[in-house]
Structures are given as C-alpha cells and as structure tokens.
Amino acid sequence: MKLKLAFLSGAAVGYVLGTRAGRDRYDEMKKQADALWHDPRVQEKVSTATETVKDKAPDVGAKLSSAAGNAASAAKDKASSAADAAKNKASEVRNSNDGAMIGEEKGSDYSPRETKVQSS
Question: Model-level pTM greater than 0.70?
Fold first, then answer.
C-alpha cells in the first residue's frame, strides 16, 4: 500500500512539473508550426497539390471502379468453377457407388442390424 501511495504521489508531482515546463515548449512548437503553415512557399505547394488531386480524382475513380469490377468478375468466375468442380466430384462419387450406401463396398450383402424396441 505504501509503495502504491508513493508511486501515485510521484506521478502527480511529475505531472504537475512536466505540464509547467511542457506547456511553454508546446506553445513554442505551435507558433513555429503556424509560421511554417502560413509561409507563402508552403501555401504555394499546398495549392499545387490540391489542384493536382482535383485534376486526377476522376481518372483515379474510374480506374478504381474498373479494378473493382474486374476483381468481382474474377471472384465470381472462381466461385462458379469451384462449384462446378464440387458438383462433378459429387456426381462421380454417386456414380461410382452404384446405389451402395456410404462406407459400403460395391456388391456386398448389406443388411441393416435389427433392433428390438422395448415398449413400456
């Protein structure tokens, strides 16, 4: 319990001291970031990038739409071929058994076990 109390009080003192020193540094960094953002050279690059994105957006959208359509078509084809393969395999299994039950050899004399039901 004493260890927990000492840790919490140390954390509280560190927090208070850190925020006092940290706030000044934070304000300084914020002023530098604001000055950089409002620099005319930075704003020129931002405006160039914005125009480029606006110009290329329709092309990129069309390419993405086309790629999504192609991916959907490929997935549909794969699923269809997998379903066909499963149907063919099931048909082969059915035909190879010639009416025999699952787990039973062809031509064996299978007769189900008779059970007696007890009535109460």
Answer: no
